[in-house]
Amino acid sequence: MDAPSIKELMATFIARDIADGEEVFVGTNLPVIRAGALLAHLHHGPSMRVMVAHTRTNLYHTPVMEYFELLTDWRGARWAEAYFNDNEIVMYQKSRRDSVFFVGALQIDAFGNSNLIGLGPDPRHLTLRGPGAIATTTNASHVRRFYLFVNEHSPRVFVPRCDFVSTVGWGEGGSDSRRRLGLPGGGPRYCITPLAVLDFEETTKRLRLRSVHPGCSIDDVRARTGFELLVPDRVPVTDAPTVEELDILRRRVDPQGLLRR
Amino acid sequence: MRAAGGSDACGRSARPPSDPPAEITLNGTGASAERRSLLIDEASLADWFRDGMCVALGGLATACHAMIGVRHIIRRGLRNLTVVGSAVGGLDVDLLIGAGCVRKVISPYVGAEALASIGPFYRAAAERGEIEVWECDEGQYYAGLQAAGQMLPFMPTRGGVGTSYPEVNPDLKLFTDPVRGETLLAVPAIEPDLALLHAAQADAYGNVQFVGTGYADRLLWRAATRTLVQVEKVVSNEEIRRAPERTALLAHGVVRAPFGAHPFSSPGFYLEDRPHIALLVEAGRAYARNGDRGPFERYLDRYVRTPADHVEYLEAVGLRRLLALGEY
Predict the structure, then answer these.
(1) ipTM score of the complex?
(2) Is residue A152 a part of any domain in this protein?
(3) How many CB pairs under 8 A join A and B?
(4) Which of B88, B135, B157 has its CB closest to that of A117?
């Protein structure tokens, strides 16, 4: 078997952090997150609640999970056990208390606050109009925990201050920062990038280097982060998937090889 | 007492309870002997739209947008619309922006996911200040619609506390909850004049049924003053009564619309037409890149201005293409 790709490594990291019984949303257009969620389900999460678009499913015995590119591809409903309206899923956050969630970003600051609104000083005339927060603002306020996920690790993304904040991470910093804002959700746990995994230092809730992916050095990560990243004395290399995990990924979750491109 | 003097998301100030709709006859005079059909033909769509109105467009992302109505809006050259796109607004919104019909967009997203991560006309018009964007996330968007449906001035949300939303959208106001003292965000009602939707089937009396969930179309119907629904099939009232639990909403008008969501998908009927969507995206990108409206004007000529009605539009697309949009 070929050595795991960085994307397969990132998906494996995500999978190992999701426990059986938790709820996870399998979105579209996010192949690494989708693969991580499904790998958790097929590897060690037979009782996970898996939401595929607007359906609740269980795929534990499904031989191959076909990839759908579009959210509204109703062929994904072939596995549905239940069907929900889009507004119900977003509005009724009480059922999301055991849900894990993923947030993308144009910008992330040192406390994990992030921006999908856009770039520029004037909100009425953004120099770059972002995709918008989608449902990340509301979901990240309530879910058990969430993960920041970006496809680029650069000083453009990791900035001292976001032009706008669309999703609160650890606010102004400090482990009680979210409680002070009245946000019941558990907040961001890790930030996953193509270079490394970052976590949050327990007291200040500043971003800290947790592991570097194979082939990437601590200095690379430092140089490509636009604020001072906390770096502990010992920084391991991100764990590789086991043979079993890689087999599930390649045979059942990602037979098209999207994570190897 | 109306001390605050605020307005809803569409910019209307607070108003007194409305009179009963004119078409309801309270004293029995003018009553007809037969149940009134709500089927309307394309020619009378003009009665449903006017400049400056607030229109909600149903469906989600690349599915189930009411494209006969959208093309009608462009053909009539309507202006200054406030468009409430769906929570994951599609290129139906982008098309209206490109055609110059839109003043303001209320939608947490406009695009086509993998086919166009953001609508090119939407991005260009927003960055150039040609349209107003009412910034919100999906939770705030749905809260505003729910407020309208419940005839309340606002709905509180927690999503947005601690973010830049109150700054980038001054209509979203932080307030102290009088019950528990929490800081929350007040989202004003989003009350469309008209919800324009596309569904699987309805009878002539406005009983509308979906294949699948209908996304958030039920909520758009609850929030809007009137609802116009295109359907793939008009069916008998007996057919509706075979499964009344499937009836999702009651339309004020029903338009017969086979392939009426084209180029977007319609669950149970056809998938999205990707080459056609690519035409739209490319036309938008040409404009966004260097202000070249040529490809978009050619698109409008061929698919919007020249076809006199929906059948002529489908003829322009071509039977072979339409029949190739099957599920498997």
Answers:
(1) 0.95
(2) yes
(3) 172
(4) B135
